[in-house]
């Protein structure tokens, strides 16, 4: 098989960002707590675990945010990215019962649902003219094998050829492989051949098996998550990656998580975007969760930007953190605010109140409010266009 040439390497990122970053770092005064980290960046040393801990402990949140923002500015200038997408969650029936999950239902639950291929397409067709991407994740259905999803993706491609399909988290891929008695690689290849464009990053939670044993027992292990994404990249499927924080993890486990993803990203160039998002407590079964404040959410985004040099984009996931905090996050290292997301179940069942009806005009206003230029992108960060809202119609003066 020919070596895959990743389209993700640049993803609209300034190829000289490290040089530009160093120029801007030299022009500022840094607190003594951050100076050793700035010195490392200036001397081209890669940041490590201890640096990550230092960043999480930094007392001056605004200086930390400034350091992250200078990284973002060096990479993308004032640009901030979004896309036009719709979430269709194909089923809430799941054979697992992760403790943090407010979405899953057992097959006999009165509000369990599973969209047939026809029902899914009917739902999608309501939004298809307005979007360029369908994002689909859901429960681990006990009967749906790879054939079900291959048929679904082929039908989407045939009936909505303008749409990219970003679908199936790592644990869903593992489940399909097991049900279909296939390797991970064959499973992903069949899905790709049927039309899958990329994998979302969901399900990474915290890549520490002790934490996973408590919050999502039975899910794929940390290494399996990494291996599934590695395999996806190997066959030419780019992916995102995530971090669910604010459950029971320590700062050290967060840093480990970020560095594991950074290292894989450096190996494959297959990760497009890192999406750190906080645990939302409502309706879920994790009473010992620490829960994140607004400050903590901004801190995680800032630290992620500073450490994650191999993954171009950092997303402020407005579906989870809300529009106001997402706007602020664009000044703390994030450069992407996800998409229009016409409908969504998973975060909203967990307590999110983020509006679902944003059109491009409203999203671009949010981006401009944060002092950035809104750039509409496609799923794979290979096409970009500055978004300008339609001009108001000029009325001619009455004769
Ligand atoms: S997080 Fe995913 S795998 Fe876990 S219970 Fe919820 S739907 Fe199932």
Brief summary:
The protein has helices spanning 17-26, 35-42, 49-57, 61-76, 117-127, 146-159, 170-180, 184-194, 209-215, 222-234, 251-268, 294-307, 318-321, 323-329, 346-349, 360-369, and strands spanning 79-83, 85-87, 133-136, 164-167, 239-245, 271-278, 313-314, 336-339, 373-377, 384-386.
How are the SSEs ordered, and which strands pair?
Blueprint lengths: L16 H10 L8 H8 L6 H9 L3 H16 L2 E5 L1 E3 L29 H11 L5 E4 L9 H14 L4 E4 L2 H11 L3 H11 L14 H7 L6 H13 L4 E7 L5 H18 L2 E8 L15 H14 L5 E2 L3 H4 L1 H7 L6 E4 L6 H4 L10 H10 L3 E5 L6 E3 L13
Parallel strand pairs: 1-8, 1-9, 2-3, 3-4, 5-6, 6-7
Antiparallel strand pairs: 9-10
Bound molecules: iron/sulfur cluster (SF4).
Report on this model:
The protein is an alpha/beta fold and 399 residues long. It folds into 2 domains: 17-75, no CATH class; 79-386, Aldolase class I (TIM Barrel, Alpha-Beta Barrel), CATH 3.20.20. It has 16 helices and 10 strands. It has helices spanning 17-26, 35-42, 49-57, 61-76, 117-127, 146-159, 170-180, 184-194, 209-215, 222-234, 251-268, 294-307, 318-321, 323-329, 346-349, 360-369; strands at 79-83, 85-87, 133-136, 164-167, 239-245, 271-278, 313-314, 336-339, 373-377, 384-386. The strands form 3 sheets. Strands 8-1-9-10 form a 4-stranded mixed beta sheet, covered by helices on one side. A 3-stranded parallel beta sheet has the order 2-3-4, covered by helices on one side. The protein has a 3-stranded parallel beta sheet with strand order 5-6-7. The longest helix is centred in the middle third of the chain and has 18 residues, at 251-268. The relative contact order is 0.16. Bound molecules: iron/sulfur cluster (SF4).
């Amino acid at each position: 098989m020919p070596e895959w040439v990743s389209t993700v390497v640049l993803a609209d990122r300034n190829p000289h960002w490290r040089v530009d970053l160093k120029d801007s770092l030299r022009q500022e005064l840094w607190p003594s707590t951050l100076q050793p980290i700035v010195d490392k960046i200036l001397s081209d040393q890669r940041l490590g675990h201890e640096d990550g801990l230092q960043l999480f402990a930094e007392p001056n949140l605004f200086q930390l945010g400034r350091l992250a923002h200078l990284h973002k500015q060096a990479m993308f200038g004032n640009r901030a990215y979004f896309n036009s997408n719709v979430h269709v969650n194909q089923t809430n029936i799941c054979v697992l019962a992760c403790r943090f999950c407010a979405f899953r239902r057992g097959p006999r639950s009165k509000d369990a649902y599973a969209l047939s291929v026809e029902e899914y397409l009917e739902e999608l067709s309501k939004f298809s003219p307005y979007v360029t991407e369908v994002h689909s994740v859901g429960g681990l259905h006990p009967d749906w094998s790879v054939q079900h999803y291959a048929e679904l993706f082929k039908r989407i491609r045939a009936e909505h050829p303008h749409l990219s399909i970003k679908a199936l988290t790592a644990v869903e891929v593992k489940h399909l492989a097991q049900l279909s008695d296939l390797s991970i690689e064959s499973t992903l290849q069949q899905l790709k051949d049927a039309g899958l464009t990329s994998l979302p990053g969901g399900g990474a939670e915290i890549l520490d098996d002790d934490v996973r044993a408590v919050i999502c027992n039975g899910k794929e292990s940390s290494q399996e998550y990494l291996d599934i994404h590695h395999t996806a990249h190997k066959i030419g499927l780019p992916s995102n990656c995530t971090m669910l924080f604010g459950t029971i993890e320590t700062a050290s486990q967060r840093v480990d998580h970020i560095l594991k993803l950074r290292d894989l990203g450096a190996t494959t160039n297959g990760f497009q975007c890192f999406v750190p998002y906080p645990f939302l407590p409502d309706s879920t079964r994790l009473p010992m969760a620490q829960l994140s404040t607004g400050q903590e959410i901004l801190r995680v985004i800032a630290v992620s930007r500073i450490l994650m040099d191999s993954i171009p984009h950092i997303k402020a996931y407005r579906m989870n953190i809300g529009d106001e905090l997402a706007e602020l996050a664009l000044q703390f290292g994030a450069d992407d605010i996800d998409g229009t997301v016409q409908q969504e179940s998973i975060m909203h069942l967990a307590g999110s109140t983020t509006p679902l009806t944003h059109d491009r005009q409203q999203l671009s206003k949010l981006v401009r409010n944060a002092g950035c230029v809104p750039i509409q992108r496609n799923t794979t960060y290979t096409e970009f266009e500055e978004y300008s809202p339609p001009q108001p119609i000029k009325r001619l003066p009455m004769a």
